[in-house]
Predict the 3D structure of the following.
Amino acid sequence: EAEVAQSPRYKITEKSQAVAFWCDPISGHATLYWYRQILGQGPELLVQFQDESVVDDSQLPKDRFSAERLKGVDSTLKIQPAELGDSAMYLCASSPEDRGPDTQYFGPGTRLTVL
Amino acid sequence: GNSVTQMEGPVTLSEEAFLTINCTYTATGYPSLFWYVQYPGEGLQLLLKATKADDKGSNKGFEATYRKETTSFHLEKGSVQVSDSAVYFCALSAANAGKSTFGDGTTLTVKP
């Protein structure tokens, strides 16, 4: 069964450093999502792509976060500089449909710890 | 805006006990509703879903019914097992919007 791949699984960094996370969605899925999940809370959407275009980045802290999906396949989420409050699980998900009642397939996540 | 409110946890049950985790939602239109499960250190896995009123989603002994009149989607299981210990998230996906809105999760611990 196809899965969403993410790397690294764990990342520890110091504040003010740059970090990057990678996601490879299920083949053929046009929609890709990045979520942030703070411990004890549900995931919150950071950015949504439809192919290579950003559909929704209203909750992305654009002063320090950036995301790209240049060829409409895999995606990178970057934080620069990292802050203590960025410690969280970063989840990537993909979906075979761009709109409507769909099902998102989640990757295992990257757990970020900022010291 | 859309929101999901889940029963606060943690919930601790003995094996074979009956489980209910309450979930209510606020949304415009007719959203799809989901339950996801997250095991320690892992990402979210879809447990079940329902896409219209009165639909019942079911999987692995869990079930939930989409109740439009009470805007609820409560998760139930008749007899829980130790392996059901996890965090359960209720979520909705509004019509014409692929992204999901999640509740804060309910931690379930099942003791032998």
Residues 24 and 74 of chain A are 4 Å apart (CA to CA).
